């Protein structure tokens, strides 16, 4: 079981690398990696691309594997695909995390992992009081489909195809972690932090 952190994006809408924005004294990607490392998983793979050397520098003190996606400009689906293709064949599931969601909780990661261990469902999503959200876990049986992804679809199209086979696990938090796409999102995240 590995966590796969997507940190390769161009941050087109924000206009600067969101994975490197400083929050609470460290880059957003570091908050996500710390949550993953504290969860009941075997390893963390970070997919890098845009601003790769700066992201690698930020992660020097963390026990992670890094995978460079040369096609990072083509969208999140390409990064997810690159990460899945780099995962060792012995890995039985991955938890997908986004580098611009520093509020992701270790408890939420642990909840999707535990539900998957109980059910071996092809996918498990966190369900918050106001809807589904990250993290999302994919079983090894979905890796072939994930490895074919392109563009911005990320795992949504795979989840759509799986339909009712997707398990949901309740996470006792009001809503999914905030992400950063725009300046307004960044301001909202900073205001809510801590």
Description:
By secondary structure, the protein is an alpha/beta fold. It has helices at residues 28-37, 52-58, 76-86, 106-119, 143-147, 156-162, 183-192, and strands at residues 2-7, 22-23, 26-27, 43-48, 65-68, 93-98, 123-128, 131-139, 166-170. It has a 7-stranded mixed sheet with strand order 5-4-1-6-8-7-9, sandwiched between helices. Strands 2-3 form a two-stranded antiparallel ribbon.
Spatially, the strands of the biggest sheet line up as: 5-4-1-6-8-7-9
Largest sheet: 7 strands, mixed
Structural class: alpha/beta
Gross morphology: globular
The count of β-strands is 9
- N-to-C CA distance: 30 Å
Query: Any idea what the radius of gyration is?
Result: 15 Å
User: Portion of residues in helices?
Assistant: 25-40%
Oligomer: single chain
Task: Please report which band the strand proportion falls in: under 5%, 5-15%, 15-25%, 25-35%, 35-45% or over 45%.
Answer: 15-25%
Summarize model confidence as the mean pLDDT. Answer: 93
Low-confidence stretches: none
Number of helices: 7
Which features would summarize this protein structure in a list?
194 residues, 7-stranded mixed beta sheet, alpha/beta
List the helices and strands and how they pair.
Layout: E1 2-7, E2 22-23, E3 26-27, H1 28-37, E4 43-48, H2 52-58, E5 65-68, H3 76-86, E6 93-98, H4 106-119, E7 123-128, E8 131-139, H5 143-147, H6 156-162, E9 166-170, H7 183-192
In short:
The protein is 33% helix and 24% strand. The chain is an alpha/beta fold and 194 residues long. A seven-stranded mixed β-sheet has the order 5-4-1-6-8-7-9, with helices on both faces. Strands 2-3 form a two-stranded antiparallel sheet.
